[in-house]
Amino acid sequence: MRDEINQNKILTVLTIFSTFLMGFLDAYTFITQDGLFASAQTGNMVVLGAKLFEGDFMEALVHIFSFVGFAVGAFIAQGVIERFKEYGWEKYRIYLFLQMVFLLIIAIIQKNIGPSVIGFLLGLLAGYELTVFRKIKSTNINNGIMTGNTKNLMNNLYLAIFNKNKEALHTFLTLLLGLCVFMLGVGSGTVVQLFGVYLNLWLAFFITGLFYIWLLLIKIK
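User: That's the sequence. What structure does it adopt?
Assistant: Structure tokens below.
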């Protein structure tokens, strides 16, 4: 039971970080890649449809690559979960290590690849993140796509106010935290752009590295 509680605490911290990171990277791709989203695939599909029907096939292609990358990332992440599900809380070290290495590779090659490849790779990362890190305490949260979170937020607010449902109030506050952290990530990603176009991905790598070091240092008995 103690190990299960500690796993939940670790997953909560990593999901909050992942929510920040998705906002951070969405701001980066939106600003530098002409309205592309890394994690918000609904937005990509809207732009994709608009570009296709306008006849702007080259710009639409970038959004297609991001969508495909996201799908591939979610597929791979499910395989990673299945592969390491028996590793207890230490599986989170593996999840984060894979993410850290992937971010390092993208940061190194970012100057030499085009928008379609950037879109595919960051879409893949987002699909991975949204699959492996998606729970704050007992509440499931989509850490990169806020539409469903907002709907659930207001549904639970209604239940908390009119039904005096304490669990709904807890869920509302958790989802509100997620929304705020995502917006903080968006704001931070936007500000970092002012200091250099290539800085965002390097900073995302270093922050992920710090959380990985934290996981190496903690001990759960």
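The mean pLDDT is 91.
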